[in-house]
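batch_manifest entry 22 of 60
target: Prenyltransferase
source organism: Aquirufa aurantiipilula
requested by: lab member K.T.
priority: normal
notes from requester: please return tokens only, no post-processing; we will run our own comparison against the previous entry in this batch. if the run fails, retry once and flag.
--- input ---
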Amino acid sequence: MRFIKIAHLVSLDVVLGTMAFQAFLHEIFLNDMPSFSEQLSLACAVWGIYLVDRIIDRKKGMVQDERHIFQSQHAITIKIILVLLGLMGGVSTLFLDQHLIYFGLGLGAMMLIYWILWFYGFFNHLSSSKEILTALIYTMGVGASSWYRISWSVWTVLLAVMLFLLVFQNLGMYSLWEWEEVGQLKSIQSWKRILLGVEGIFLLLFVSMLFYFDEKIAFMPFAITFAIQCWIHYFSKNKLASRTWGELAYCSPFLYFAYEFFSK
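--- output ---
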């Protein structure tokens, strides 16, 4: 449990979940696993982004939870990790497909714009804009090594939308709880309506995809992640303390791979 706790404090649980969904998307779309360089570049990028996010929070005086406090106490170590991530990520790009590199540069530009808008308070003026942009960047990034290879169809887009809705639900429910701590009634009611809509749309798409596709087991990670997030949202007594399990929910593709392995 101590390892899980430390992994959560430095956002490694997010990295593990991202890599799990990257492999899952590769499997269902390409019937293959991502290369080591594709996995390494994504892991370095995601971990680096989350660590930089915490640094920006601290620069803005937004020390909100134990992750911010832990990383503030180990600021030098975090900076060393960021340098190492930059080096490993840079080396991994030498072995990536050129199209993926261009895709990654585009996402990098989006991330830079996101940080600038966030730092100067742009998101304060548009409700849920930060969560929408974060979920969009995550969805594009986690499937980057798959998206540029596949032939797009309506069903491919809908599956990507489902992933976006899952991530948006995750971000939204924590934003809701943070507003509840502050006591902003207007923001609380707004987020409750947004989350209800997101969950309703996700369920509608999920049921539609189950009817369309024969291999229904492929949607197990979506179902498990959604169920865990709903449980935390509606039934967890200490929702912010359940954040670790909310992040680990994205490791659900490992259950899909276990099923595939033992069913052969």
